[in-house]
Amino acid sequence: MKILFAKNVIEVSAKEAHEAENYGSPAYLALLDAKRQFPDFSIVVKSKSKNAGSFKGLNRDFMKKFIEEHPIEGKDLMAEFNALCGLDDDGNKKTFAAVASFGELRMWFLSNYTELNEGRSQIDKILENIKTAKAAA
């Protein structure tokens, strides 16, 4: 449990919230005590993100740097990247430019640099082989 004074919030984990559902439990009493001390604070349950299939660290800055360091012959990927991001040729934001969503930008990037996807598929194959070997045993 955390008391976030700047936000006027009592933050509890999902596990703590589940335990506090039981009347009279230690988690219930701790939450009740915190609410008594800070009656104007709201209680927020912090949940864990379950985004296991993501490319951690894949953001616009990474993509820009990767495109600069790994050009593909015959394609002007930096110009396409800038267009998708709503930037001009110098990398400055255009006024009233249409901008692709991050999902669209990621799809475009990974379709041009398929080797980034292949690494994940190799890991998936190895893990699948382990699972089938355990099931056969």
Features:
52% helix; mainly alpha; 3 strands; 9% strand; 137 residues
Would you kindly provide a written description of the structure presented here, covering whatever features stand out?
This protein is mainly alpha-helical. The protein has helices at 14-20, 26-37, 60-69, 77-85, 102-112, 115-136; strands at 2-4, 9-13, 42-46. It folds into 2 domains: 2-46, no CATH class; 60-136, no CATH class. The chain is built from 6 helices and 3 strands, in the order E-E-H-H-E-H-H-H-H. A 3-stranded mixed beta sheet has the order 1-2-3. The two termini are 44 Å apart.
What is the secondary structure topology, with strand pairs?
Blueprint: E1 2-4, E2 9-13, H1 14-20, H2 26-37, E3 42-46, H3 60-69, H4 77-85, H5 102-112, H6 115-136
Parallel strand pairs: 2-3
Antiparallel strand pairs: 1-2
Helix pairs in contact: 1-2
Count of helical regions: 6
Sheet with most strands: 3 strands, mixed
Sheet with the most strands: spatial strand order: 1-2-3
What's the total number of strands? Answer: 3
Rg, rounded, reads: 24 Å
Task: Give the end-to-end Cα distance, rounded to a whole number of Å.
Answer: 44 Å
Beta strand %: 5-15%
Shape: flat
The count of domains is 2
Query: By helix and strand content, what is the structural category?
Result: mainly alpha
Short description:
By secondary structure, the chain is mainly α.
